[in-house]
From TrEMBL:
Keyword match DNA-binding: yes
Annotated protein name in UniProt: Transcriptional regulator with XRE-family HTH domain
PANTHER family: HTH-TYPE TRANSCRIPTIONAL REGULATOR (PTHR46797), METHYLPHOSPHONATE SYNTHASE (PTHR46797:SF1)
Alphabetical keyword list: DNA-binding
Native source species: Kitasatospora paracochleata
UniProt xrefs under Gene3D superfamilies: Jelly Rolls, lambda repressor-like DNA-binding domains
Pfam families: HTH_3
PROSITE patterns in the cross-refs: HTH_CROC1
InterPro entries the UniProt entry points to: Cro/C1-type_HTH (IPR001387), Lambda_DNA-bd_dom_sf (IPR010982), RmlC-like_jellyroll (IPR014710), RmlC_Cupin_sf (IPR011051), TransReg_Diox_bact_type (IPR050807)
Source organism, top-level taxon: Bacteria
Domain called HTH cro/C1-type: residue spans: 13-67
Length: 183
């Protein structure tokens, strides 16, 4: 993970924790992580996984994107291979934040790149969250853990993001665009 992104994440976690009025001990407890891990992240010494950042965001009641998105200029372009990328510890899966919710809007946009192998299992996000996925290449098994569907290039699927869900690449170089809506 790039040093600039780690610094941004450190400042964002500290800002959101202080905004919520939580101590490091309380936030670590709510997120299910060690206080030492949280301390390292806030000091910019850690290298968080996507799972850790989702847990911290959920514990703070903020979207994941608020922890990784830099301030935005008026016109923004993210070239392929650029942007803040988070890697999974569970699978060969990475999520690149393309756009987060501006004030008043409630959606984040990600590009997903995944390889066959272990599935990316996601814990439930904030209540009322819906995920929308459009597969760009490859094949994938996507959706609620209890009833995922197989999708191919150009297929669209939406499902509750506030229930356990899965993304499993079934073909090499699977890519998708995912929009996460927050109510």
């Amino acid at each position: 993970m790039e040093t600039d992104l780690i610094g941004l994440i450190a400042a964002s976690i500290r800002r959101e924790r202080e905004r919520a009025g939580l101590s490091m001990t309380e936030l670590a407890k709510r997120a299910g992580i060690a206080k030492s891990t949280l301390s390292q992240l806030e000091s910019g010494a850690g290298n968080p996984s996507v799972e850790t950042l989702w847990a911290i965001g959920a514990a703070l009641g903020v979207p994941f994107s608020r922890l990784v998105d830099p301030p935005r200029p008026n016109v923004r372009i993210i070239r392929f291979g650029e942007g803040p990328v988070m890697h999974s510890e569970q699978a060969t899966y990475s999520a690149t934040l393309l756009a987060s919710c501006p004030p008043g809007a409630r959606r984040d946009v990600y590009r997903i790149d995944a390889q066959p192998g272990d599935s990316r299992l996601s814990d439930p996000h904030m209540p009322g969250t819906t995920e929308h996925v459009v597969l760009g290449s490859g094949r994938a098994l996507v959706g609620p853990v209890e009833e995922p569907v197989e999708v191919g290039p150009g297929d669209y699927v939406s499902y509750p993001g506030d229930a356990p869900h899965i993304f499993t690449a079934l073909a090499p170089d699977t890519s998708a665009v995912m929009v996460v809506e927050h109510i």
